[in-house]
Design a protein that fits this description.
single chain; 95 residues; two-stranded antiparallel ribbon; 5 helices; 2 strands; membrane; transmembrane; transmembrane helix
């Protein structure tokens, strides 16, 4: 879990999981570009809208726009070097 400026891990071995750490670093970048508090508000609002839409916690979570970007890009360990500001906007679904 990423809570700016920290990445909180459940187990010590997760420190060596480069994909997991990269995923959380993507969230830190999202938080920073939205000045932190608005990120959490948008995250929660997006989750609640998805929960109504999908009526399923897992589908709601995986369709949060910030999660969609992080999961789509977490295997690219160079992603944050090339990422443009507000790249998460590309992951908004309109349908």
């Amino acid at each position: 879990m990423a809570i700016f400026p920290f990445i909180l891990l459940r187990d010590k071995y997760q420190k060596t999981d480069k994909i997991l750490v990269n995923h959380e670093r993507i969230h830190l970048r999202q938080q920073l570009e939205l000045l932190i508090i608005p990120f959490y508000l948008l995250y929660l609002i997006n989750y609640l809208i998805n929960l109504v839409r999908y009526r399923n916690h897992h589908r709601a979570y995986f369709n949060i726009v910030f999660e969609r970007e992080a999961y789509a890009c977490d295997q690219n360990l160079d992603y944050l070097k090339k990422r443009k500001f507000f790249s998460w906007l590309k992951y908004i679904r309109t349908s």
